[in-house]
Amino acid sequence: MSTFKAPKGTYDLIPPDSATYLAVREAIAAPLRNSGYGYIETPGFENVELFARGVGESTDIVTKEMYAFETKGGDRLALRPEGTASVLRAALEANLHKAGNLPVKLWYSGSYYRYERPQKGRYRHFSQVGAEAIGAEDPALDAELIILADQAYRSLGLSDFRILLNSLGDKECRPAYRAALQDFLRGLDLDEDTRRRIDINPLRVLDDKRETVQKQLTGAPLLRDYLCDACKAYHEEVRELISAAGVSFEDDPKLVRGLDYYTRTTFEFVHDGLGSQSAVGGGGRYDGLSEMIGGPALPSVGWALGVDRTVLALQAEGVELRLPAATSVFAVPLGEEARRVLFAKVTELRKVGIAADFSYGHKGLKGAMKNANRSGARYTLVAGERDLAEGIVQLKDMESGEQAPIGVNEIVAELESRLG
Q: Using CA atoms, how far apart are residues 107 and 84, in angstroms rounded to an integer?
């Protein structure tokens, strides 16, 4: 047994469970690819300052959860704790916004890292699929992204999730709300760290999950009562577009996001079957982020959906995905000539798109057939010297147990016909 184990708070994806994770990623990405979003991949680490400016220097992510380190050359880097800042940085660096086709629509998939107390649904290494639409201020874009996420979840068979929706206002109307909220929060019995947040970003106090804090927030001023006319109109159009698409949502005036860059539309996907870690994804509009990290004004909107938590949601609902068979045909050669012939046929089957595997290691018939059973293959090809002398192999249906001879030159066509 190895003396090494995966680091605390991380996990390994191994077969057969890994097939479910791949299917979830594919299901989330499919609607995006059909809607003009191109794939982007960024490094697993970035300059610390990118997240300090973008995510927020006072956020828990930056102050407590980010894995930061100094290189031998003296650079301060951090493992990426989220995807939006990295994707926007890459888009700006490549001048995608100057190509004349705004918004720039991008999707991504990858691993992210936060130093948190590990528990079910919360890991120090986690997987997300995300989407960003950069460079356009349009309620239809916000609605599009919410609809696409809803479509992705429903394509997986999920139904017990809820979409929470709110508006965080903008630079015109949020200052008045911020001042009113600060006045309210200063009258509460809060610990030192939370009181510091009142001055830096009071909205984050609303996002505090501790019951002792939430009890005191009853009667806190709500942002919706402070929205300017422009933000009200914008939010109402988002709501109307989502409703017209048949997507259900709940207005949640207390919903805020834990990152500094969000403005106007904010939303969260929650699944009540997951306990305390009920959020499976979320996002919103971030019109000022580009300027925060040194770029031009580029109003943008995006989301990230957790692959890990989506898998947990599927388990909570008892949804079993229909996954393609890892192996459809398994070849069992008996003798050197059979090894040569069947290996060539396995290669041919793979070329025409049939998932095929081979009994390696010179096993006998009994051991090879055990491997065939374990592989989950629908059909097994068995051939010995006597079969090949007659120009045939034995084709066994592993479900019915029926076995019949088939010509060597007919193998590929016959299996294509049977597997459709």
A: 10
Residues with Cβ within 8 Å of residue 378, at least 6 apart in sequence: 325, 328, 329, 397, 398, 399, 419
Which of these, 321, 303, 268, lies nearest to 22 by C-alpha position?
321
Longest dimension (CA), the chain: 92
Instruction: Please provide the distance, in angstroms rounded to a whole number, between the alpha carbons at the two ends of the chain.
Output: 43
Structure pTM? Answer: 0.89
pLDDT tens-digit map of 50-101? 988 877 765 667 777 889 999 999 999 999 999 999 999 999 999 999 988 8
CA angle (63, 64, 67) in 5-degree steps: 95
For residues 346 and 381, give the distance between their C-alpha atoms in angstroms, rounded to a whole number.
Answer: 10
Q: What is the identity of the amino acid at 247?
A: V
Residue keyed to tokens 């388990």: 315
Rounded to 5 degrees, φ, ψ at 356 are -135, 145
Instruction: Report the C-alpha gap between 394 and 382 in whole angstroms.
Output: 5
Rounded CA separation 238/240 (Å): 6
Q: What is the pLDDT of residues 337-362, one digit of tens each?
A: 999 999 999 999 999 999 999 999 98
For 132-165, give one letter per residue: b (16+ CB within 10 A) or e.
Answer: bbbbebbbebbbbbbbbbbbbbeebebeebebbb
**Residue pair 110/126 in contact by the 8 Å Cβ criterion:** no
What type of residue sits at position 200?
A: I
Please say whether the beta carbons of 184 and 242 come within 8 A: no
